[in-house]
Specification:
Helices cover about 15% and strands about 30% of the residues. The protein has one domain. It has about 80 residues and is of the alpha+beta class. The protein starts with a strand and ends with a strand. It contains 2 helices and 5 strands; from the N terminus they run E-H-E-E-H-E-E. A 5-stranded antiparallel β-sheet has the order 4-1-2-3-5. It is globular.
Length: about 80
Amino acid sequence: MLVKNIKGTEENVPYGYSDWHDFWEKKTGQKALRDLGGHVKKVNSDDNAWYIADISTAQSRLVDPYEYNGALAKLRD
């Protein structure tokens, strides 16, 4: 699926989670494989929710949309 990074949200880890990877792992039931838990939004979709994705540092720096094929953990609408 095509996703786009959401900037400026990295500081607000939800209560009860040690970091964004912890959040992603607990929500998806999977072990994180990448460097970061990044905030993303789906592109070309009616779904306006925000998600945490298991992404690399290089992906977190992207400004343009990119292909992501992993699990998403819904953060909020």
